[in-house]
Specification:
221 residues; 2 helices; 3 domains; SH3 type barrels; 14 strands; alpha+beta; three-stranded antiparallel sheet
Length: 221
Amino acid sequence: MTKIHVLKDEDLGGIEREYVEVERDGVVGDWVVGKLGNPYKVVGVNEDGDVYINSGLFIRSYYRTVEPTDIVCIDGERFRMVDRKANVGERVIVTNDWYDAKSGNTLSIIDGSDFGFSADRENKEVFYKHPDNSKSQIRFISGNFYRVLVPADSEIAPQSQDDIIANLIRRVAQLESELSGAKRDIETWAQEVESLKHEVVQPKQITLDVDTFAKLIGGVR
């Protein structure tokens, strides 16, 4: 099972973010965890895959590199950061500094048209009111600078292996039933075709002697 570590993401203003362990060498700037599970920032590496941290050296077999997921923790709740245009009423997190909105800030999206503003749909522009601004001071933010926050715990949980197998069994049974019905239909049609063959009137062969044939010919004349 993948181990999850919650660390403060410096690129998001110190917001807590979930990280997972991965199988690769650490590089400068990465987070790694030692055998005891404590996180350390990598400040140097060598050709053997060993990493240097502020307090010393970790050999390659002693540490695991961790990478950030798209799950962040805000006020005790887990949110997934989704790359799409935000809707009115949704919250977004700033991923890169944008004028008065700093990386890690969370913003509530408002309807700009209420204030006479229009947004660029292609750039996923949306409008917000910064907590430090008055209602008349509306700002917009481009889609490259934010991610929509979707409650992670409200998402549909992935199916367990038992659920997947049960669904497959039900689907196979359904397909077998449909095939059985189709087979019965084909057999019925075959029987109907065969019965129609026997109902067709076959021409009878008539044998005439010479005298009778001559009389018939004469009658025709």
